[in-house]
């Protein structure tokens, strides 16, 4: 039963993400733009401090 509930939650969350408008952020709904600060992020910026 626990696995069934986890699968249901996963499918539900994927369904919510799929309902966002293109060119917008899924949570805030703000429009993506060419001056967004996340465009400067690199994979190295996402590391855990102390493990790198």
Descriptive account of the structure:
There is one protein chain. The protein is mainly α. Helices cover 33% and strands 0% of the residues. The mean pLDDT is 76.
Biggest sheet record = none
Computed CA radius of gyration, to the nearest angstrom: 16 Å
Give the structural class: mainly alpha
Taken in chain order, the helices and strands follow as H
Number of helices: 1
What is the tally of beta strands?
0
The protein's oligomeric status is single chain
Mean pLDDT: 76
What is the CA–CA distance across the termini?
A: 39 Å
Low-pLDDT runs of 5+ residues are none
Please give the share of residues in helix.
25-40%
Shape: flat
Beta-strand residue percentage: under 5%
Write the layout of secondary structure elements.
Layout (H helix, E strand, L loop, with lengths): L1 H17 L34
Keywords: Signal
Protein name: Lipoprotein
Features:
mainly alpha, Lipoprotein, signal, about 50 residues
Short description:
The chain is mainly α and 52 residues long. 33% of the residues lie in helices and 0% in strands.
């Amino acid at each position: 039963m626990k696995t069934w509930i986890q699968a249901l939650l996963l499918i539900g969350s994927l369904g919510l993400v799929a309902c966002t408008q293109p060119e917008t952020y899924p949570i805030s709904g703000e429009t993506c733009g060419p001056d967004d600060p996340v465009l400067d992020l690199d994979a190295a910026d996402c590391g855990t401090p102390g493990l790198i």
